[in-house]
Design a protein that fits this description.
Layout (H helix, E strand, L loop, with lengths): L8 E3 L3 E4 L2 E13 L2 E11 L12 H8 L7 H22 L1 H11 L6 E4 L2 E8 L5 E5 L11 E4 L14
Antiparallel strand pairs: 1-2, 2-3, 3-4, 5-6, 6-7, 7-8
Helix pairs in contact: 2-3
Length: about 170
Amino acid sequence: MRKCSVNVGIKWPNDLVLNGRKLGGILTETKVHKGQITQAVIGVGINWANPVPETGINLELWQGSQNSRPISCLEMLTSTVLLGIESGVECLSQEGISILLSGYLDLLTNMGDQVYVNQLAGTVVGVTPQGNLRLRMATDNTKKPLTPEISVEPGTISLGYRQSSV
């Protein structure tokens, strides 16, 4: 979508974000056999013209606020999403996880955000190749980190959304 001048980011682990608001999400489901992925299903949901909560945004509303329509119809949106998925799969198979992860991190909107895990503050510093969120933990009164860095699995913490306007 960025090629269409729609600057979508990713809120860990799989929300699509536009102007700080949820535009949609990516859902993946895999089957693993003997440590190998044998099947994968990828789904992408994007708010087009549907009603959304205050923390959400739909593409029609956003395009109206921009006085442009880089994505003119659902067919173009579908094509754009499918080309993006194809590009990601090609990157993974040709370049490997480290290059794909680098691209993911470039789109990550949470980088530098402060979050809490078990009432301890941490700062988002990245994502592991397994998809876990990397956090640099705050120091205690002695200024020594309790644990310098931890990773948390998806579903362990919620990063939430801030209320904002279009």
